[in-house]
Amino acid sequence: MKRPLIINFKNYDEVSGQRVVKLAKAAQAVARKLKVEIAVAPTQPALALVARNVKLPIICQHVDDQKVGSSTGYFVPEIAKSYGASGSLINHSEHRIEMKQIASLVERLRGLHMTSIVCAREPWEVMEISAFQPDFIAIEPPELIGSGRAVSKENPAIITKSIEAAGMRSKVICGAGITGRGDVLKAMELGSRGILVASGIIKASSWVGKIADLAAGMK
Ligand code: G3P
Fold first, then answer.
1. Spatial distance between the Cα atoms of 103 and 118, rounded to a whole number of angstroms
2. Does domain 5-216 have CATH number 3.90.190.20?
3. To test ligand 1's pocket by mutation, which of 6, 7, 10, 202 has the most ligand atoms within 8 angstroms of CB?
């Protein structure tokens, strides 16, 4: 992925059951029409279903640093890949893990040729995480997640400081409170290499309309 708009489905009821396919297809329609790179992050049980229905990069919301084989109930990268996933979020603010596990998972995903997107809450965390050289680091201030107040407008400095902290080691993307084209435009102007978004799309009355609105800001 180069400059992705990543849609995190989280555990929103709006995308439960077959509705997960409807949102993924809406994303695909916009990606094709506007020629913007859009990736989807459905819940784990929906990975294979989404992979069967769309040709978009499919990102896990989380993977566990557990072994392949006897690790009941955990979700490991190798098995995720077998169902069509091409990458994973790691250390999302709603699912934090230890630095040691982050390092191990980034390496493991790299070995599998899967994209790693590690989330961070602060620029100092970006700095620490960048030592592992994940493909992307997503800066997301937790207080703005789901708030409708965009990180790019409420706290532009956290984006620029994160880019500085990551140096050449990882690309920085951002998320939290992104709901409109202007929020995306501002983030990209600040140097963000992509966007991570959830509620702004999932709660919208028209998925296609809202994804197109945000995607237009990526161009
Ligand atoms: O992973 C995306 C995320 O945490 C941002 O959520 O609802 O503010 O777009 P939201």
1. 10
2. no
3. 10
